Amino acid sequence: MPPNRSHTPGQGENDSESTPPPEQDHPAIDIVEVKLARRSGRGIRRLVTLCGTPTQLVAEYDRRLLESEPDGDGGNDGNSGDDDGDVDGDEHLTAENKEEIKRRRNREYQSYLKLIKLIPSLKERIADPREELRIIYYAQLVDGANNARSDDLSRVKSGVASLLNNRTNGAPNPPLDLDTRDGRGLQNDVTGRLLCPVIYDWDDPITRAKLRDGLDEHDAFDDYWIRCLYEGEKGDPEDVERGFLRGNLLIKTFQMIFTSPSSARGNLDAEETSEAQGRRRKAPSKRPSVAAQLRMNGQVTARAIAYAAVQLHFSLNDATHWMSDYNSFNYEEFYEFIIDFFEEDQTPEGKAAADELFNWWNQYVSGFSPTCVSTVCGHSRRLVQISEAVVTRTPATTAQSTPPKFLATDTNVE
């Protein structure tokens, strides 16, 4: 097994990427508005990007905006500015490097459009000529985004452990600790099985030992067709797409994050004992769900599913705190892999398969209407509509004549 990445014990779910500027150093900024900005940012990791920042996404929008203006002042919204001539003409880059740069740019632009949909007033905020305030604004958005991710890590860590501990068959012995991820990972028979890619036979003792030791090219962290994401927690090595992203634990993880912890124990709870279910019955919460606060409108999205998959996989590992790369498993690449599973194949067959999977999700996720289905075609139309709605502006680095009021919130998110 590859050695663990170094980490500092005792940090819990603290997110090392969260580095907001000290509030006391900016007396001109209304402290209430700063807090509202953090709330607005809480949906970014859940619906927009796992690790990216608003600064990166706006920079890609600005690049397209500039390249779409032949004379430098052409009043275009950036929608057609996807010319990658600077990449194609670079003789120092391999064809593979060029394709990867183009894919990264497209991902960042799509994420920018998602960000604008999540926080509509951002279009005005990023046009604020006061660079210092823009920096503070972006920092508060990132702080809110990372805080929400940390909250979800904590919730899923205990929630997944509770679900596994209460299984009638195959429960971990000793039970998993709800408060830490110690004792999880490949060395644990239960979590190890769930982390095992379907191409390997976990029940074979020799294979299992090789996976744990990382021997003979047996790398459990170099494959994204992972058992915990499959229906019945089993997959077909000869047909890896069959049952993929239909796993019970994945559905429940999504519910823990977006609907409520109680809904995660709802319609897919046959594996729990009746005694365990009885202990868990509580009065329903009157607080709006995260999905409602984020205005998801009954639509399960590819990025929300990918985010839930990241949270589930991380909860099965033994990391002490969030890292985007742990034991050589890159969570950002994993996240993008799942998004591509829905969106990359634009053939009629690929779109139909994605439609069918979204339909399946909407039927099983509590709090989402099966009639409000997010299809690949609908997803593409929404991106076009959003990009067309982006108002014409100069790049964020250019001053505007009338600065907008700083930091009014669009969302008030848990």
UniProtKB/TrEMBL annotation:
Biased composition (Polar residues): 1-13
Top-level taxon of the source organism: Eukaryota
Annotated stretches, region: Disordered: 1-29, 67-102, 164-183, 264-290, 394-414
InterPro entries: DUF6698
Start-end of Acidic residues biased regions: 68-89
Coiled-coil boundaries: none
Amino acid composition bias (Basic and acidic residues), ranges on this chain: 90-102
Name of this chain's protein: Uncharacterized protein
Natural source organism: Thelephora terrestris
